[in-house]
Write a structure and sequence with these properties.
Radius of gyration: 33 Å
Distance between the termini: 124 Å
Largest sheet: 7 strands, mixed
Shape: globular
CATH superfamily of one domain: Immunoglobulins
Length: 551
C-alpha cells in the first residue's frame, strides 16, 4: 500500500515537471514577441531636422503612453539629457540630419540602455513605428502641411491609431499595408493617394473646417471639457496629450468655431504660447469659457527640486504658408465713372479675398475673387467721384487661403489716377495644346487689336496642383503663351484653368479673360515629317555619290 502511494507520488512529480517544462517553453516563445509588439521605454527621444520624424516619434510615444522629448538645438538637447536619470531605458530616434549629434555618447555616459532607430526616411520610420504599435486605424494626410498633422494627432492618440504621411512619392510603398486598415483620408491629398486607398474622406475646403470635422469625430467617442487652441505652425509637448485641438487663425475666429465650443460644453480653452492671445480672447469672450495660457516650462536647477526657473517652451516649427496680398493702386475713369483697384499676390499659395471701398462716407463692396501666386486682379467699382474724392480712397481687403476662411484683413488709403480710359482691346482664349516630347503647354489667344496680356494657369502636374504665371506679352491678332510643365494624360483630362489679365495699357491690365481648356495632344506636323524624309534622302544621296567617286 505504501509502495503504491509512493509510485503515485513519483508519477505526480513527473507530470508536474513535464507541465512546467511546457510552460517554460511557451514563455520562451512568447516573451520576445511581447517585447517586439509592446516594448515600453522610460523615455523616447527624437533628434531630427526633418519635422516628419519628430512628429511621428512624438505621436508614437503618446499612443504608447511613454514620456518623450524632441530636440530643437544643442543647448536644449543638453538640458534634455540632464533630466534623464542614469540607467534609464531610452528609445532614441534620429534623422539623417540631427541637432545634437553627441546625444548617443552622452546617454551612454549616463549608463542608459539605448535602442537607436535610424532609418532611411520618414516613410520607413512610420512603417516601423506603426508595426510596433500594432494599430488598426490610420489617418492619412499630406506630408506638405504641418497643421493637418497637429489637427489629427488627438484623434489618433485617443483611438490608439497612427498617422501616415502619403503622397505620390511613397504611395506604392505603403498602399499594400494600408489596404487592411481602417482609414481616414484627411485634407488635400494627391490624386494617386485618393485613387489607391479606401476610407472615410474629410476635405471640407479649408484647414479650419477639416479640423472641425475631425473634432466632431473626437467628441463622438470621447468627452473633453478642455480644448487646446493653436495655429498649427509648431509642435509642443502638450499637443500630444490626447486632448482635442482647435486650429485658430491669427486674426479672426470663425463663427463655426464659436458655435462648436458652445455646442460641446467646453469649459476651458488652453492656449499654447503667446501667438494667438488676441484671437483666443475673442473666442473666450464669445463663448463664456475660462482661458488658460501655457507660455513656459519649469526647469529644475542645480540647487534642487525647490529651485526652479521658467524657461520658454520647446517649440519645433514646421513649414507654414501664409496667404499674402498687396493693395497696389487705384484708377478712376471719368468717362465710365468707374473706380478700379489693383490687388497683387506676392506669396506662394492662392489667395481668396473680398474688398470694400469707402469714399466720402459711401461704401462699395465686391464679392470673392481669387488671385494665383504672382498674379494681379483689378476690381471694378461703379461710383461717381469728384476730383477731390479721388484723392482719398479707403480700401479694405479681407482675405485667406480658402473661400470659407477669410481670416486676414488689410487696409490702405490710395490716391486714384484720374483719366479717361479708352480701352478697345478684347481678348479671347481659343484653346490649348500639349507637347508630350518637349513638355510644353500652349495656350492660344486672339485679340481684335494690339493688347498687352499676362497669363496664369491653374493645373494638375503629375497629380499635383500647380499655379504658373507667365510674363506680359504684346499680342497682335493671334498669340500663344507657353509653360514648361510635366503633365500626363490624366492631368490633361482634368483640364487647365486659364486666367489672362489684359489691356491696352501695359501698366494697368484691368480686363480679365477666364476659361477652362482641355489641351489637345500636339502631334508632329506632317510637313516636318516630310522635311525630315527629304533631308535624309539628300544626305543619303550625297554619301552614295561620294562613295562612287572614291571607287
Amino acid at each position: 500500500m505504501l509502495l503504491e502511494n509512493k509510485n503515485i507520488y513519483i508519477l505526480k512529480i513527473i507530470d508536474i515537471k513535464k507541465f512546467m517544462r511546457k510552460i517554460l517553453f511557451l514563455i520562451v516563445l512568447i516573451v520576445p514577441f511581447i517585447f517586439l509588439i509592446s516594448s515600453v521605454y522610460a523615455y523616447v527621444i527624437v533628434d531630427s531636422q526633418d519635422w516628419h520624424d519628430t512628429y511621428l516619434a512624438s505621436l508614437y510615444a503618446a499612443v504608447n503612453g511613454e514620456d518623450f522629448n524632441f530636440i530643437i538645438n544643442e543647448a536644449q538637447g543638453k538640458n534634455v539629457i540632464q533630466g534623464i536619470p542614469p540607467g534609464s531605458d531610452v528609445l532614441l530616434i534620429t534623422g539623417e540630419k540631427q541637432y545634437f549629434p553627441a546625444i548617443v555618447a552622452q546617454l551612454k555616459a549616463k549608463n542608459c540602455n539605448v535602442e537607436e532607430i535610424k532609418l532611411g526616411d520618414y516613410t520607413d520610420l512610420m512603417k516601423e513605428l506603426a508595426k510596433r504599435l500594432d494599430v488598426e486605424s490610420i489617418v492619412v494626410i499630406s506630408p506638405t502641411f504641418g497643421y493637418d498633422a497637429i489637427s489629427v494627432a488627438p484623434y489618433a492618440i485617443k483611438t490608439h491609431g497612427f498617422v501616415y504621411f502619403v503622397d505620390e512619392n511613397n504611395i506604392d510603398r505603403v498602399k499594400d499595408e494600408l489596404s487592411n486598415k481602417k482609414l481616414i483620408l484627411y485634407g488635400d491629398l494627391h490624386r494617386d493617394v485618393i485613387s489607391s486607398l479606401t476610407g472615410e474622406r474629410i476635405n471640407e475646403g479649408s484647414r479650419f473646417h477639416n479640423n472641425l470635422k475631425i473634432l466632431e469625430k473626437y467628441y463622438e467617442g470621447f468627452s473633453a471639457p478642455q480644448l487646446i487652441v493653436t495655429s498649427g505652425e509648431f509642435m509642443e509637448a502638450s499637443l500630444f496629450s490626447g486632448q482635442p485641438i482647435m486650429l485658430l487663425g491669427k486674426q479672426k475666429v470663425l463663427p463655426e468655431q464659436i458655435e462648436f465650443v458652445k455646442q460641446h460644453e467646453i469649459k476651458v480653452i488652453l492656449l499654447i504660447g503667446y501667438e494667438l492671445l488676441d484671437v483666443a480672447n475673442v473666442l473666450k469672450e464669445k463663448t463664456g469659457v475660462r482661458g488658460i495660457m501655457k507660455f513656459g516650462k519649469g526647469t529644475a536647477q542645480a540647487g534642487g527640486e525647490f529651485m526652479r526657473r521658467v524657461e520658454p517652451l520647446d517649440l519645433y516649427f514646421m513649414p507654414f504658408y501664409t496667404p499674402e496680398i498687396s493693395i497696389e493702386k487705384a484708377s478712376y475713369d471719368i468717362a465710365s465713372k468707374k473706380l478700379y483697384v489693383q490687388f497683387f499676390n506676392p506669396g506662394v499659395i492662392p489667395v481668396y479675398f473680398t474688398s470694400v471701398v469707402s469714399v466720402a462716407g459711401r461704401v462699395y463692396e465686391h464679392g470673392i475673387e481669387k488671385i494665383n501666386p504672382g498674379s494681379s486682379v483689378v476690381v471694378e467699382y461703379l461710383s461717381e467721384l469728384t476730383e477731390k474724392e479721388t484723392k482719398n480712397i479707403n480700401v479694405t481687403v479681407i482675405y485667406g487661403e480658402a473661400q470659407k476662411a477669410l481670416e486676414y484683413e488689410k487696409t490702405a488709403t490710395l490716391q486714384a489716377e484720374v483719366s479717361e480710359i479708352s480701352d478697345k482691346c478684347n481678348l479671347t482664349i481659343d484653346g490649348g495644346a500639349y507637347n508630350e516630347k518637349s513638355l510644353i503647354l500652349k495656350v492660344f489667344v486672339s485679340t481684335n487689336t494690339e493688347c498687352y496680356a499676362k497669363p496664369s494657369v491653374s493645373l494638375t502636374s503629375l497629380g499635383k496642383k500647380k499655379y504658373l504665371v507667365g510674363d506680359v506679352q504684346l499680342i497682335k491678332g493671334k498669340g500663344t503663351f507657353t509653360f514648361d510643365v510635366r503633365m500626363d494624360r490624366l492631368d490633361l483630362k482634368e483640364g487647365v484653368d486659364v486666367e489672362i489679365d489684359y489691356g491696352e495699357n501695359k501698366e494697368f491690365l484691368f480686363k480679365k479673360a477666364k476659361k477652362k481648356i482641355y489641351p489637345e495632344i500636339e502631334k508632329e506636323s506632317s510637313s516636318m515629317i516630310y522635311l525630315i524624309i527629304i533631308v535624309s534622302i539628300i544626305i543619303a544621296s550625297i554619301l552614295i555619290l561620294a562613295k562612287r567617286k572614291r571607287e
